[in-house]
Amino acid sequence: MAMSSKQIVELNVNGIPHQLLVEPRKTLADVLRDDLGLTGTKLGCEHGVCGACTVLVDGRAIRACLMFAVQAQGPEITTVEGLASDGELDHIQKAFAENHGLQCGYCTPGMLMTAHAFLAENPEPTREQICEGMNGNLCRCTGYQNIIKSTAAAAKAAK
Amino acid sequence: MSETLDLREQAIRKWGSDNRAIRKGKWIGKPARRLEDPRYLTGAARYVADLELPRMLHAVYVRSPHPHARIVSIDKSVLPGLGKTVFAFTGEDLRDVPPLIDHVALDNLLRTPQPVIAIGKVRFVGDAVAIVLAADRYAAEDAAELLSSVVEYEELPPVPNVAASGASDAALLFEELGTNEIYREAITHGEVDEAFAKADRVFSTPFEHNRYMAAPMETRGVLADYDRADQQLTVWSSTQMPHFLRSVIAGQLGLPENKVRVIAPEVGGGFGMKMCTVPEEIAIPFIATQLGRPVKWIEDRHEHLIAATHSKQQSINLEVAVTNDGKILGVRGEFVGDGGGYSFNTESALIEPALAAKALPGPYRIENYREEVGAFLTNKSPVAAYRGVGWTAANTARELLFDEAARGLGIDPAEFRRRNMLRSDELPYLSCTGQVYDSGSYLESLDKALEAVDYQAFRQRQEELRQQGRYIGLGISSYVEQTAWGSESSAQAGTPLPSHDNATVTVDPSGKVTVAVSVSSHGQGHETSLAQIAADGLGVDIKDVVLLHGDTSNTPYGLGTYASRSAVIGGATVARAAADVREQILQVAGKMLEASPEDLVIEDGKVSVAGTPSRFKTLADVAYAAHWDSEVRNSEPLLSATRFYDPPANYANGCVVALCEVDADTGVVTLDRIVAVEDCGMVINPMIVEAQVHGAIVQGLGGAMLEHLIYSDEGQPLTTTYMDYLVPTFSDVPPIEVISIETPSPFTVGGIKGMGEGGQIAAPAALANAVADALAPFGARIEKLPITPDYVLRLMGKIG
């Protein structure tokens, strides 16, 4: 089958360059998870609605289930594994821990990545702006209340 | 009054007046940050889909595109590489695996055995037809698509709903039963006909509760590995009940139970959906044993929406007989479940209607009540548990009807409730359906919620705005939530099941604590809340406690987590085991400090003589000596205890009030504010309790306003992606305020009551009543959910 002919893909993930042999039809999310073992990026719907697979591509929040790995060559890709440094949580991760912004944890990586991109553009958001900016990420446990609180706290901490 | 006293005495006799104490120190009641969070925040947490084993095969299902059909043929030979690189299994290949059958102990319930892959006939779109396997998920998907295209079916007339199911000429899902109606039973409590004959007024409402589902962020998933050397089967599953699943797998596959290990790794939300044993949890392990290779199946979202269990759907016809001054004399209710293609193995198709019927009285004094329960099969995905099983529908129908009655009588809806609600001093109270409400704050919760929203001021503002053509509304929903699911709770709920749970607390030679529990966490934060109980029991910091759960090989047997049972049962088993280990520690420390054990205290990891803190040994020193020093160690030196608990039933309670505005032009409902009063007895961690209320309320909001699993009249599911099946997003959710009342249970260890479902039970009625209140000038009556804009316009008479 033509679909299965593999090709070389070069990805730059969390500051590390990788050269991989993958099928052109393979999504960025599947390559991150299966080929690079970065399973922090979650799959919640695989049709671009739930946001669990959100990663940063040159700082922009992108759904890794809607992008092919072959399209992601060149830019800097950041996954949830790239947030903490030297075992120290970053200010958004800390805000989620301090404000009980997660329960089962499945949506959390996507929430953190979206919060990064959102707060970079809106450093002092209102509640309404947080709801609008994070609206593309679904959570089934928290009712969003503490994610809103965590995101607001992260904005404050960054100041 | 004498009956109240009798109930208390009976309960105390049965459950013991002692042995209910819990040691409270620095941790219980504190909003301790969660110990489990760092691994989730860094992406290190591993769910089933994240696990990989050498030589692992990926399984993909071929599922029926027809609601009702005979399988004529499945030609596996079309698959290139069959038996070498690609493998396929059909129902015929799994004929030796017994079908799944519900285990409800009712003689007049008809049974619908479900093969783990369909044999001969499919009964809903999504029913399993075959499983295809390959070393790569993409290759397995290709093969499944190919096989799917060659399955031959003979279509049968679809049975898309209860009306069609009960028609005299309906096609039968199980021909051998001769009917699609698998249960019908009526029970009368008290003098119902007399009550209705005496009534000044009778109000009634038909209510269609919508079909929606838990849809956790992590779908279902199973990984199975059969080790031929040890003849050991290991199954990783996204389950809420690992030990119970082990028992079922061993039984279904004919394996000795000590050769089966089930692990629930990280579980990305369950909400009751992941408590039942699903056919995939039997089929995948079976195939792993046949092929001698690890097999992983990860459900995709489309598959989840059509083939994972659905929930909540039932029709309720409710009538209430009242006096002119608003006293309830009696209630009649008919509850009919739409069970889907199989009466599912958890609690059968009765899971919704039977639980709804028993819970209908809620926090009210209802002495005369007739409940009639029916259940039908239809060609839809089977109905099973989802947070607030049955109780959501019962609460919604009842609270809607009570508002209707209050409006009809010209009595304020809060006042109507007050006149019929049980007072705290009437508890314990035996409800007419046999539920023993242990304690609570029914009226206090209502009053507190109304006070928080400044009820009188709202009514005034509502009147003013109506003059301007703006429609705001306030909805009240009071509830009791049955919790602590053990043998007694399940019996009081109407579906008796035996219960069994344990915890083991161990202090190792270094003085660190390991707690192994039979309850299983999937987001509830047990690693923190149960550590708080162990920490207070042993006088240590929660950071020195490691909690093990979810793995049958290192935790004691028990039923896992569902039905708001884990705080009560997990909490009590840990508290009791910790108390025993504390005694063991004090015995050893007494010898080391030359003091009587009764005179010792443990605090901050030090054992000291009470009143003389300078005379102490660290817990580490004591634990070391307890293991290695033959002079002081106990005759059974291990610092370890395992304790059991099967709790008495108990009931949390609360009240949810919602405020909304309806746009009269578009029918769009804007939710302004939700206030929830929650009383779950003694609180272990208020931060976790508050967040459980948030989550449950928003799931209820989803069911009331957005979520609806729609089938066409031909039985085709129409909501098969997250673009059609709408779960609440950030901007759908108003601010939610949670107010806590603590009325400890007089029956349970520590006075703990369960919680977690109240929000989902109560929120839909609060929202629906708010909309009905806003639309009162139009004479609107809500008879179904969800409340979509077009339904609102219909209620206002703006569209036909």
From TrEMBL, chain B:
Domain Aldehyde oxidase/xanthine dehydrogenase a/b hammerhead residues, every copy: 42-157
Q: What is the lineage of its organism?
A: Bacteria, Bacillati, Actinomycetota, Actinomycetes, Kitasatosporales
Q: Does the keyword Oxidoreductase apply?
A: yes
Coiled-coil spans are none
In its keyword annotation, does this UniProt entry include Oxidoreductase?
yes
Q: Which UniProt keywords apply?
A: Molybdenum, Oxidoreductase
| Pfam families per UniProt | Ald_Xan_dh_C (PF01315), MoCoBD_1 (PF02738), MoCoBD_2 (PF20256)
Name assigned to this protein: Xanthine dehydrogenase family protein molybdopterin-binding subunit
